[in-house]
Write a structure and sequence with these properties.
The chain is mostly beta strands. It has a single domain, classed as 7 Propeller (Methylamine Dehydrogenase, Chain H), CATH 2.130.10. 2% of the residues lie in helices and 49% in strands. A four-stranded antiparallel β-sheet has the order 3-2-1-28, with no helix packed on it. It has a four-stranded antiparallel β-sheet with strand order 4-5-6-7, with no helix packed on it. β10 and β11 form a beta hairpin. It is globular, with a radius of gyration of 18 Å.
Length: 328
């Protein structure tokens, strides 16, 4: 299939995003769907059915294109968002492995601010690493070997274009300069680091699966500056609102999300969500927190002012990954 030339990033800037309307994108495992959802009514606006479990995704700044990683494909599917139809696939020998089912498990995906490079984490490669894909030439540029095990989710910091790649099995977070694709720092973060969220002041928030803690890294120095303990139990992910007011850390075992005052680094509320909370996603203005729920098969809508669940939207069979889609 022909690959489109697109520029990728969730938003051009926090200011412009806040002023725009948005929809949700929820990736559901067992029914293999990528869903665009109206966050107010819960209506499924568009749906794409993949060949296997879509896991994580990222959208273009104009909202016209969406990339979804399909670990068992193994490939990354490229969707146009007018009707959520497939317009191409990213495939590579790097996505193959001699481990497990033969897939290197292309998992986490992230894009540079100008949308020129897409980064795809390989969780189960023979040598773990990241594939770098040029979105303008539609070619795989290289594979960055990271050696360390346990990389699930990766994200690129707005403004700096630094990539943060937590290694759950090795208790470290890799920092990569996307201009050179060189590893510039390795930050020790105990507790099984997985999720990543970025605050506008440069702080990098890390959710840890193992002990329910959240680590805060100073993004200017790339050093650990705080650890918040005992926030919950079980696997989850991390998000920070674009205004820098809130951080959110989900927990699958304790079935909740910790809503954290990002300025004071204190938990403002622990909100029960039911079975399997996964990706948390803030609305552009920070007034709502959307939490994917694998076990409940829905998306919980949390009002950050009242700190309560105000709606639940049925989406697919077991939504895990999620994001915001903004059309310009």
């Amino acid at each position: 299939m022909r690959m489109l030339r697109v520029a990728i990033c969730l938003v051009a800037s926090a200011t412009s995003a806040i002023a725009q309307s948005h929809t949700l994108v929820a990736l559901s495992h067992s029914d293999h769907t990528v869903n665009e959802v109206d966050p107010v009514s819960g209506k499924i606006l568009h749906k794409f059915t993949a060949v296997d479990q879509p896991h994580e995704g990222v959208a273009s700044p104009d909202g016209k294109t969406f990339y979804a990683a399909v670990p068992n494909g193994p490939h990354v599917v490229v969707l146009e968002t007018t009707g959520f139809t497939e317009i191409g696939r990213i495939e590579s020998p790097f996505f193959k492995s001699s481990r497990a089912n033969g897939s290197a498990s292309p998992h986490g995906v992230a894009l540079t601010g100008d949308g020129s490079k897409l980064y795809v984490g390989l969780e189960n490669a023979d040598i773990p690493g990241i594939v770098v894909y040029d979105t303008k030439t539609n070619k795989v540029l290289r594979k960055i070997d990271v050696v360390l095990r346990g990389g699930h989710f990766l994200a690129i910091q707005p403004g700096t274009d630094k990539l943060y790649y937590p290694m759950r099995d090795d208790n470290r977070v890799l920092v990569i300069d996307t201009k050179t694709d060189a590893i510039t720092k390795i930050v020790t973060v105990n507790g099984g680091p997985v999720g990543v969220g970025f605050a506008p002041n440069g702080d990098v928030w890390i959710h840890c699966d193992g002990d329910g803690s959240v680590a805060v890294i100073d993004g200017k120095r790339d050093s650990l500056v705080a650890t918040l303990k005992n926030l919950g139990q079980g696997a989850g992910r991390m998000a920070v609102s674009r205004d820098g007011k809130w951080a959110a850390s989900t927990h699958g075992t304790s079935q909740d999300v910790a809503l954290i005052n990002a300025a004071t680094r204190e938990v403002a509320a622990t909100i029960k969500l039911g079975r399997g909370p996964a990706f948390p996603v803030f609305s552009p203005d920070g007034s709502k927190l959307y939490a994917m729920n694998v076990g409940e098969g829905d998306v919980a809508v949390i009002d950050t002012k009242s700190m309560t669940v105000v709606a639940r939207h049925k989406v697919g069979s077991d939504p895990f990954g999620g994001g915001i889609l903004i059309r310009k």
